[in-house]
Write a structure and sequence with these properties.
About 40% of the residues lie in helices and about 25% in strands. With about 230 residues, it is of the alpha/beta class.
């Protein structure tokens, strides 16, 4: 704060030398404007951001990543701020509305939770388990959109794939979702994002469970079309 006051004083002295013809009121107005801007900058720097979580109600097992899931998100999504799409080509990361935990860890927990539920159902039905199928394989999730839009929706795009030890793709499914917000504000946006991504995770888990039971009955992963919820 002392540094800011000193800078304002220097600015005022310079204005006095450069604008000898200025009236005292004009000079006073300049100084007051500088003081106001300084105080605003100081206040904005001390604001504590709001933190949001998508996984408060999930069991601890989901966060332990039992399926060894690898999650990839864009650099923008990894910034920590909640994302708003401001035009078809631009997105903005919020400074004062941020994720409580790394977004990729939260997305991993949500998908792991859906996979655990699918395996519980498979156990009861005496079907093969997804976890057993993935024992020597790699499960990958790529999320390219997880944001709010100016039209009042939560937009999500994700791709799930399974690869063997040689890197060959055995299974792939792409899904996108648009969920209308029920109210204004970031809490409503986070609720819609959670809802949309949970739906995608359920779809992924159901498709992967079906594939695990009979891989030969599914089309080649390279030719599978993308689907929307």
């Amino acid at each position: 704060m002392r540094k800011q006051i000193k800078q304002i004083k220097v600015t005022w002295q310079k204005n006095m030398l450069k604008n000898k013809s200025s009236s005292p009121l004009q000079i006073l107005g300049t100084v007051l404007l500088a003081v106001s801007l300084s105080l605003l900058n100081g206040c904005s720097a001390s604001v504590n951001p709001e933190r949001y979580s998508l996984i408060e109600d999930l069991p601890a097992l989901a966060s332990s990543n039992p399926y060894d899931l690898q999650v990839r998100i864009s650099a923008t999504l990894a910034s920590g701020g909640i994302i708003m799409q401001t035009s078809p080509y631009t997105v903005v990361s919020a400074k004062n509305h941020r994720w409580a935990l790394r977004l990729e860890d939260q997305l991993s927990a949500l998908l792991n939770h859906s996979l655990l539920k699918a395996d519980q159902a498979a156990t009861q039905a005496h079907h093969p388990l997804i976890r057993d199928y993935l024992e020597d394989k790699q499960l990958n999730l790529s999320v390219t959109a997880f944001q709010g839009t100016l039209t009042g929706q939560a937009s999500i795009k994700a791709l799930l794939s399974v690869k063997d030890s040689s890197g060959q793709t055995l299974f792939t499914k792409e899904q996108d979702s648009l969920i209308p917000l029920q109210a204004d504000g970031y809490p409503a946006l986070c609720q819609a994002l959670q809802q949309g991504f949970t739906q995608i995770c359920t779809s992924f888990a159901e498709s992967l469970a079906s594939f695990t039971q009979d891989p030969a009955s599914h089309p080649d992963p390279q030719s599978s079309p993308a689907k929307s919820l």
